[in-house]
Structure formats: structure tokens, C-alpha cells
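Run folding on both entries below.
>entry_1
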Amino acid sequence: MHASIETARTIEEVRLCEAKCAAIYWNSWTNVSIRLRPRDISRVPVSWTRYETRKSTLTGAPRAATNPINSLLNYSYSLLKSEARLALLSVGLDPTLGILHADQRNRDSFALDAMEPVRPMVDAFILDLLEERILTSRDFVELPNGVCRVRAPMTHDLALTLPRWRQLMAPVATDLAQAFRRVDPSAVTLAAAPHRKLSQATRTPASSPSPLLATPRRKRPQRPYASKAWGTPRPEPLLLTPNACARCNEPVVKRRRKHCDKCIPGVRADHARKIVVVARATLAVQTAAGEDPRKDPEVNRRRGRAIAQGHRRNRERSSDYANDGRDEKWFHFHILRKLDEVPLSQIAAVTGLSLAACSRFRAGKRVPHKRHWTALEAMLKDLMG
């Protein structure tokens, strides 16, 4: 493939080599899959859980994606394209005149050419996102025509990557502008269209050398996205002017932070130790005043009775539900997948648990005790009539 590119003499041959390389590249994505919550696996089509092909089943092309992975790629490429257009305009280039991408009406063809060096960084970001983040069925929506679209708040998280793509596109646009300025205008010939001939008078005269070429231009170093330090999208953009860490004076690039990532564990440990010191001092003051709660016989008796009663209740409940034939798979199938639209207040009312505990149960992070399953099953039957 490398030899074919070296021997290519026309743009059409270059495009053919690019198409063959793209086919090999996207075929290597066939083992990529997405991570879904257990209760969402049965709610989405089977084709959504893995990557099959870059082509859409509706159009035969990447446009109009029909699965989440292609939808994430298309949305991220659109963000990159917008930054490529702005970067080209900032250096005085026309984003609509394509070189490898053919000129088409209402399309920024040159922006599509310019974004090619940064597309591998976008692909790496999407792969890291699929590996680190557990997606939900609410992150995507299937339109009536079968197109899969990314929904909020996932779109908001992806939009926060725009500063990164802007930073990576800046040196690419600068290099392209310098390359066009180095072209000798006298060596460029205009190819007239078959239906129109350009006279010598209508041709653009050769322009004088740009004064910008007389000034040495410092090339910006490339900062490719190559590590997982960035990880998934942050809910906040990085600071353009970092603050100094209050402990080691290192730059802090995250908002509303006073310490760097290296100092945060130590700061949290110091804070915990201070809380322990304050608690012990408060307890010492209460003891000196004769109000030590640890030495109150009545408090100790009530605490002991409550603990013993809890242990006895747990033993009785464990023996009652040991042989009822229900397990966690039964709970996920008959109860968990139906709790998505039930308010937390109603779940808390029938179980007697807190809203935080009910939220973890409804999200599938924890499984409630079997004594609550009967109440939840009865509540779902009442709601469904």
C-alpha cells in the first residue's frame, strides 16, 4: 500500500489508495463493543452493542449512522470539522475549496481535507470513551427512519472536547497556510472548464511575495492525543491560565481547585485527620462535663438491644427467603427493568428505604434484600393494572 501511494501520479490514484487503507482500518474495528448497564441490554437492538461496519444500512455510507459507535464518530467528526473551518478562516484560507475532497455546493471540502491529520486523535478518544464509560439507553435515540442519534447529556460532554480539537487544528492550519505561500504563482496554470474559456485578461495576476515570509515563523510542536491521561470528557474545560497549587506551587488547570492532582490525596488525608482531632476534642469536652455518651448505661443498653434485634431479624429473613426459587436474575428480569419509569418516592414508600438507596437499586448498582421484592412486585402489578 505504501508503494502504491509513492507511485501515485494523480489525485484519483491517491483517492483509490486512501479508500483501500480506510477499508483495512475500519475492518480492524469489528471487535469494538460498547458497555451498557445490565438493565439496558434488553432495551436496545443487538446491533447496537457492537461495531459491524462503518457504512450505514440506510445509505451505504458513514452518513446517517444506525448504531451508537458510528453515531459517536459522526458527531465527533462534525465537531472537528467546525474547528477545522474556523482554523482555516483564521489563517486566510477558503474552507470550501477542496483538494482531495471534490468541490461540492454547500460543503466545506477543504475543511474535510485539513481535519485528516487530527482524525486519529478523535478515533483514539472514542475508543477510550467506549472502554471507560458505561453507556445507557438514554444516551442515544433511534429516529423513525432508523437513524441513531446521540442525545443529551452525552452531546454536552462531547462538545467539551472542542478546545482540544481547536488546539490540535491550529498547527495544521498554520502549516497549510505556509505551504500555500511557498507556492510559486508563475508555475500555477489554471485549467479552464470545458464549457468556459478563460482569456488572458481574466486570469488572476501573479501576486507579490507575502511579507509574512520575511519573518521567521516558529513552528508549533505537535501535541497528539496519545495517552489516557485525558480520559473521558470532563464536565468543565481546562483553564487557559493555570493557578498555582497551594501546597507545591505546581500549575492547576482544573476550575475550583486549589491543589494539583499529586497533592490531592495528601490534602484529603490531612483533612480526615483534622476531623478526627476535632471529634476527639469534642468528646473530651463532653467527658469533662460529665456528658460522655459512651458511659451512659441506658444508651449502651438501647444500642445493644438494637444490634441484637437487627442480627436476629437478618437471620430470620435469610431463612425465610432461602428456598423461594428467586435469585438476582429473576429480580433483574421481573422487577429491575420495569423500575425505570417509577418515581423514587414511590419506591421508597413501599420499601421504607431512603431515596439514595432506592436510586442505587433503580440504577442497577445494588440489589435490595429479598424482603423488598414482594412489595416491589405488588407495586408494579398495581401500576400496570
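>entry_2
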Amino acid sequence: MHCRLRLISALMTACLASSAPVFAQSTTGRGASAGRYSGPEVSVDQLANVRPLKLDQAIALGVRNNLDVEVNRYQPYISQLDSEAAWGAYDPLFEGDVTFGDQIAPANSLFNVNQLFARGEQFGGTAGLTALIPYVGAAVNVAYDSTRSKTNMVFQTLSPEYESGLTIGANVPLMRGLIWNEPWTQVKTSRLLYDAELDNFTTSIMNVAQQIIAAYWELVATKEQVRVAEKSLESNQALLDQTETQYEVGVVSKVEVVQAEAGV
């Protein structure tokens, strides 16, 4: 609304500058006559600051200076970031751990008569990926584990000993959460919000442009009305001057002079 008022004020100033010579001419006549029109005075500084606007320039100026449009312009970007954040639920999750163990215990085997203590070391780790599948509520995981064992027991044939394994699994719900699960619903909802904010931004621009167009042509129509009124004023002013001259020479009565003044 404030932008529209500023735009109307600028357009009115431009029209005032174009019609200023007419007003100035109307104030240079016989100023002593009753009912004579006196237009507003326009200074040279005001005329120097006037910038006439075409319709496309007025629309561009109004849209650029409208705060509602400026606020709505960032809403689609925010909704787009929210939509990308919702897709983050489907980013793979990496998990891993490392274990180390060192165990010392008294030898309790008949095969280790020369050993008082049995010692074993174990070093291993696990690494895996877990991810959700879009649209369906299934989750898949891949894990790899490896272990290195070492002992001083004489009957142990392999030392160190290595063990490793690969595990692939999936968790698929059969009924609840199979399709419309929470992560996928969040993705779809954020996408709808992005489209809605984009429509709101477009609508705000269209509304502002429509208001500017209506105000622009309303001002043009008002300017034409002023021009017609000025022409009518000039005609009535000329009639008043003629009637006053006829009254001075005694051709018409005072009543016709008053009627001509009323016309002015």
C-alpha cells in the first residue's frame, strides 16, 4: 500500500509537471476578476526532480520497492532448503567400531605344563552402512567385520588367527510404514510447501502489478479529466472576459456577468 501511494505520488508529480504551463498561463490573466482560476505554483526545483514513468517502468519500480514481494521472494528458497533437508533422512549412515583385548589367565590345560600363564590378544573392528530406501519404508545395511587373534598356547595351531565376515541385511515392513512412512511423508510435504510458496510469490507479484496498472490508468484518466476541465475553464474564462467587456460598454446587464462568473 505504501509503495502504491509512493508510485501514485510520483506519477501525479510527473503529470503536474506536464500540465504546469497551463496552470501558469491561467494565472497571468486579469487577476482582479472575481472567480478567476488560480492553479498551484510549481517551482523549478520540483520540475527538475520529476521523472515521467512508462507503465513497465512503474511496474518494475513498484515491484522492486514492495516489502511484501521482497519477503515472499525468499520463501521459496527457504522451502527448497527444507525440502533438501527432508531428503537427508535417506543419506547413508556409516557406523564403525574398533575393539582390542588382552587377556592373561593361569594355564589350566594339561598340554601347557611348561606355561604358568596363558595370554591371548584380540584386535578387530566392524564397519557398515545403513540406509533407507525412498518411497518404501525398507532399510538396508551392509556390515564388514574382521578379527585378529593371537595366543601363546602351544596347542593352538594358528597364531595369529584372522577371521572376517560380510553381512547384508534388509528390514522391510509388511504393513504399517511400508509406503507412507514418516521420512517419505516429510519429503512430499516439503515439496508441496515449496510449490505453494512459489505460487504465493507469483501471486504477490501479480497483485502488485495489477494494483500498479489500475493506479496508472486511473491517473491517466484523471489527467484527461483535468485537461478537459482546463479547456472548459478557458472557454468560460473567455466568455467571462467577453461579458465583462460588453458590460463595460453597456451592451449586457450585470446579471449576465454574474452568470459568466458562476460558469467560471
